[in-house]
Amino acid sequence: MGDVITADEQQAVLAQHQQQLARLTQQHQAALDKRTKELAETDAQYQKQLERIAQTQQTALAQREKKQKDLVASYEHQLALMQVDFKETTMQFSREKKEIDALYRKKLDALNTQMAAMTNKIGELNTLKERFATLAAPAPIKNKMSDSSGRGGPLRPVVFKSSPNAYLEDELDYTIAKISSLNTTALGLQELWATRYQLLTQLPLGAPLPLALGLNSNFGPRVDPITRTVAQHSGIDFVAKVGTAILAAGNGTVLQAGWDGAYGLTVQIKHAEGYISKYAHASKLNVTVGQTVTRGQKIAEVGLTGRTTGAHLHFEVLRHGQFVNPMQVLVVPGSKRTATE
Ligand SMILES: [Zn+2]
To answer: Which residue among 23, 123, 303, 321 has the highest number of C-beta atoms inside a 10 angstrom radius?
Structure first.
C-alpha cells in the first residue's frame, strides 16, 4: 500500500498546478496585449495610407475637372470665333453676289437695249422693203408682194424690259428666249425677201439697154411712121446705135431667137408669172432657143432689121398673151411710172 498519496501531497501538486496556470495566463495576456498593440498600429498605418490615397484621388479628380472645364471653355471660344468668321464670310459673299448681280443686270439691260434697237431697225427695213417691193412689182402681181401671205410672220415691236425684282437667272432665260424669237423672225423675213427678190428677178423689170436712153415712142395708139395711119403700138422704142448691147430684162428662158417677119431678128424670153419680153430689129443674136438667161445678160445687138425706119430696139412685154405697157413694168431710172394698169 506504499503507492497511496496523502492529502498533503495532493495539496502540494494542486498548488503547483495553480502556479503554472497563473504563469501561463500571464504569458498569454502579455502576448495578447502585444498583439493588440501591433494591430492597432497597423490599422493606424492603413488608415493613414487610405487617407493619402483618398487625398491623391481627390486632387487628381479636381485637376481633371479643371482640365475639362478649360477645354470646354477653349472650344466654346473657338466656336464663337468661327461663328463670327462665318458671319463675316456670309456677309462678304452676299455683298459680292449683289455686286456680280448688279454687273450682270447692267450688261443684260445693255443687251436688251441693243436688241430693242435691232428689232426697230428690222421693222424699219421691213417697211422700206415693203415700199420698194410694191414700187418695183408690176401692177398685176402687186398683191403677191403684200405681206398677206403671212410668210415670215409679222414683226411686232418687242419690248425688252428688265425687272429688278426678278431673279437674274429668269431674266437671262427671258432675254435668251427673246433673242431666239428675234432670230426666228429675222430668218423668216430673210427667207421672204429672198423669195420676193427671186420672183422680181424673174420678171422683165430691168432696162433692155445698158443705158435707158433714147426712148422714142410710147405704148398705145400713134401714127405709124411707115403707113402714116393711126395704129396701136404694141411696145416701146429705144433709139440706139447699131451694135449696142440688148440686155435681158429679167431671168428666163429663150423662147425665140431668129427672124420674125416685120420684127426682123427677134429674141423672146419667157419669164415667171406668165410674162414674155420681146426684143426686135436686132442686127445680131447672142442666144439660142431654150437657153437660160439672167437679167442684164447680153442677148442681142441693136440693128434695123425688119420693118423699121432707123436703128432702134422695139421692146414688148406680154402677160398671158396680152400686150402690157412696158412702162408699167420696167424699173428704169427716169422712167415715168403710171398708177393705172
Ligand atoms: Zn416699135
So the answer is: 303
